[in-house]
Amino acid sequence: MDPFLVKAIQLILSLSFLIVLHELGHFIPAKLFGTRVEKFFLFFDVKFALFKKKIGDTVYGIGWLPLGGYVKISGMIDESMDKEQMAEPPKEWEFRSKPAWQRLIIMLGGVTVNLVLGFLIYMMIMFVWGTAYVGPDEMPEGFAVVDSFEEYGFQDGDRILEVDGKEFENSLDINKHLFMRGIQNITVLHQNGTEETISIPEEIGTQMFKEGIMQPFVPIMAPVLDSIQPDLAAETAGLKKGDKLISLNNVEIGYWHELAPVSMENKEKEVELVFERDGEIKSTMITPSEEGKLGFVKNYDFDIKRKQFGLAESISKGFDYGYWTLRDYVYQFKYVFTKKGATQLGGFGAIGGLFPDTWNWLGFWNTTALLSIILAFMNILPIPALDGGHVMFLLYEMVTGRKPNDKFMEVAQMVGFFLLIALVLYANGNDIYRALFD
């Protein structure tokens, strides 16, 4: 099956699963507190629905616009902007008639479900698949290090032994930890056999972001192609999985990290690529993209190990993994408010790109858990039209003893709704721009 379709199917399946459970997080406490739920929809039913059926007081359905889902709760100012209902006297089964603490639980239900679900999926992953890791013994060639990090004392061929005095199990995580975990020092084993503990400057993550150095450590590996990306330079040039690169534009390529500088120097220029296939030396002409990309995926030639866990340890490890996933996402969220970060925002195309291009249950569940935690965090932001906006106004009411008036709530809801629509359009516009011009 086409990789695009595989990613699209996984995206729709994952989001549908997460949206339905999120809305159940609102629906169940609403029903428990005797609040009427008028609609329960997967996707938005603007003008019409693909399917709908009324059971009791609630219409269940599937809309045609896949931008989310919703439950319409009686007596609540939401995106439906049902002013006629709000103009009538409050009924005992309406949201607005319930105590503030019950309304708060109803509004927090969706976020709570997404957060708990993300942690539970990670626990399941630990129990079923365990964790993959590559230690220093599996990387005898070590890492290639960018020039700016050599100034701190790192050398090509270094292997990571410890981070902040603790054994570092998965060497491939070092870039992520540098960017988001506030590392203070790294102990490495140089190729000459000596160990050295190197201090890391404060705010190294911000420095990496500003300089565009998101992978200061790159594994030293033979340049063998694992797969070819469709409709890019490598496919056009006729390259295949298993080809081993030899030179680009007459510059010898002995390891993967030596390719990027040469490719960047020759972006959008047609150059000769020499490679080996089945013991035979061949050559082809290839044109790196505007960003110096050639369109193939590396083949990792080191041993990737996997650690399995029992049920009790899976719960602990899964919780820990979920915590750090949430913390890392919150930490890097600050970059969204920078000029560079704003240009990197992505919509459904970027989200779909997180899924593997061949069906893989581990990859599917890993991405679904990540999206669940992201949805929880994004929904709790204090923006009107999001759950966090309703929670913000409810907390105000509980502290002051006064409800914001309905007119103010209507205006706030409308402003929040248009802000969200603008953000969705901008993020998906970035996807389209990258697809057309990157």
From TrEMBL:
Oxidoreductase recorded as keyword: no
Gene3D superfamilies: 2.30.42.10
Main location: membrane
Membrane topology summary: Multi-pass membrane protein
Enzyme Commission identifier(s): 3.4.24.-
Keywords: Hydrolase, Membrane, Metal-binding, Metalloprotease, Protease, Transmembrane, Transmembrane helix, Zinc
tRNA-binding listed as a keyword: no
Family matches, as Pfam families: Peptidase_M50 (PF02163)
GO terms under cellular component: membrane
GO molecular function list: metal ion binding; metalloendopeptidase activity
Subcellular localization: Membrane
Catalytic EC class: hydrolase
Residues annotated as domain Peptidase M50: 11-423
Family: Belongs to the peptidase M50B family.
Protein name: Zinc metalloprotease
Organism: Christiangramia forsetii (strain DSM 17595 / CGMCC 1.15422 / KT0803)
